Amino acid sequence: MKLFSKAEVLFSVKSFTAAMLALYLAMRIGLPRPFWALMTAYIVGAPFSGPTRSKALYRFGGTFLGAFATVLIVPAFANSPELLSLALALWVGGCLYVSLLDRTPRSYLMMLAGYTAGLIAFPAVNDPGTIFDIALARVEEILLGITCATVVHSLVFPQSFGPVMLARLDNALRDARNWIADALAPNGDSNSTGDRRKLAGDITELRMMAVHLPFDTSHLRWTGNAIHALQERLAAMVPMLSAIEDRLLALRQLGALEDNSRWRTLLADITAWAGTRKDEAPHDPQGLRAAIDALAPQPSRNSSWLELVQLNLAARLRALVDAGAEAQTLRRCIGKGASGPLPPEARHLPGVPANALHLDRGMAVVSSLAAIIATLAGCAFWIATGWPSGAAMPMMAAVMSCFFATQDDPVPFIKGFLVWTIYSVPLSAFYLLAVLPAIHSFEMLVLACAPAFLVLGALIARPSTFGRAMPFLFGIGGTLALQDTNTADAASFINSTLAQLAGLALAVLVIGMFRSVSAGWTARRLLRAGWKELATMGAGRQVPSMPEFSARMVDRIALLTPRLAMAGAQQDLQAADALVDLRIGLNMTQLLAARHELGRSQAALWALLEHLSQHFDARPHVDAGENAHLLASIDNALRSVSAAQTSTAQRDALAALAGIRRDLFPEAPPYQPSPVLEKEIR
Known about the structure:
Elements: H1 6-29, H2 34-44, H3 49-76, H4 81-100, H5 107-121, H6 131-155, H7 162-183, H8 192-210, H9 224-253, H10 261-274, H11 286-295, H12 305-339, H13 361-385, H14 392-403, H15 411-435, H16 442-461, H17 463-480, H18 490-514, H19 519-538, H20 546-567, H21 571-574, H22 578-594, H23 602-618, H24 624-642, H25 648-664, H26 678-681
Helix pairs in contact: 1-2, 1-6, 1-16, 2-6, 2-17, 3-4, 3-5, 3-6, 4-5, 4-13, 5-14, 7-8, 7-9, 8-9, 8-20, 9-12, 9-20, 9-22, 10-11, 11-12, 12-25, 13-14, 13-18, 14-18, 15-17, 15-18, 16-17, 19-20, 19-22, 19-23, 20-22, 22-25, 23-24, 24-25
């Protein structure tokens, strides 16, 4: 194992300092469980001050809500263990469901509120009259740990979140530039697939990170709206670039690109303009817009398929230039805001709400039901056996069911937690049975804890070892807490440890039976969610804005990409392309926006949208006859709109229709301005 870096050592020292400060104050105040304050300081700690503050706020809110629920639930059902178990299990499952519908770090609040009730209530069910005092003490201990961690990480060599955020932002812009260069290359580039995967992942990661911005110590916290707006421009580039790649491929197949120097020159100019870095003087994109408009064919009743493809390409290139120009401007504004006042034009920008991201309510229900079943099973075993330390069994089952609920298959993660908790048992026993009885001062306690906790703290700061170091530290911290209850003896230690391990094993069993799914199963579910939304749009039941739809579909692509890789050789998944669905959806929103200005052509467009709705409702099982019917409907809409009065709406609709035809039927014969009679085909 390589040596610890300075940042890892610094984080470990700060975390240990915060933990010991919290432990000292808890002991001085006389709180009943001072080691809870110690553990909270480690849980809240993060390498950067912004995430530390946000986790502190969410953890306190979740703890307070969980404690409040406990005070209401336990006295009401104290005389009926079965109903009490059911009420607590339903609370855990309900909070988990709500937390899974929030794809940001804010979800931590509701998840914590769920299992905190179990942490407080299960050990106290034998003495319900003291539940208020116990809940109050837990809140005080956790608040103390939160406060110490926040103060230490914010004041002692604070690590600002701003530079990391800006670096990720620049990485996303670099990946966008790379994709533009590869997509617009004269003969295409095989690297574009990797570029778009990186960009989709960058956008989703930036959305998650930006939640911590308001809590950061740097000026960057005032640029949140501008950063969200830049993320939206990047998300909009994904379908644009994907469409541009495909249209250029179509033009190459039609032999219309190699000998057309004007198109090739335009593509080279856009590539050079997009490559402008943040520290270079920006070039005016107005000339590019004029060049694109000059190359775009004028639509007419007799527009050929080649002209329609060029019209679509021109529309997407212009949209790309507009999005790129806005992204460059926003990046410069963010740079100014990071070191001083944010420019006025970047202060009030409309944004896409967090709930625009992909939400899987079905899996949230399944996850919450699994948590309920695991908690009830632990309670049933505890009640049936009368095990004195059995409270830890449903408690740990509830915690593990919540911790890893966002994973496709939580079982390997819970097993890892179980294994490293077992590995911590010898060291925990050594501390509890040999070290603590020999300690008679706080200074000696600090010296005794320092070797193990400092090493574990540095390992927690390292992403590659976090998943092993955290359960190891939890194991030691949970064992030291036995000192608080005057049960620091071998029998209590064995009982408590066995109950915790039994709870982890129960979580593995229940989650494996009711909740675990494969990567391929989740990938299919993501694809079906996209098809369902497209079917809803075609039926006119729900028409999201372009930014919202783009953000949601790009988020699905980022979720889908690693799962497709893990799914292996499954032909039905390999044939699916969420990017194509994204392009079709954006074209459909464009059609819906333009249809009211197209007069008589509206009837043909409504018929097409209805056929599109039926097509996506039937996915992935669509027969050849239905495909032929849909292709004829697209061609009929193209002829109808081509005959409409020339306007901006007509151009937008023709570009969208050409995009839908190309995306759905790339191998179909070229569109014919006039219907081809059956005799001519024969």
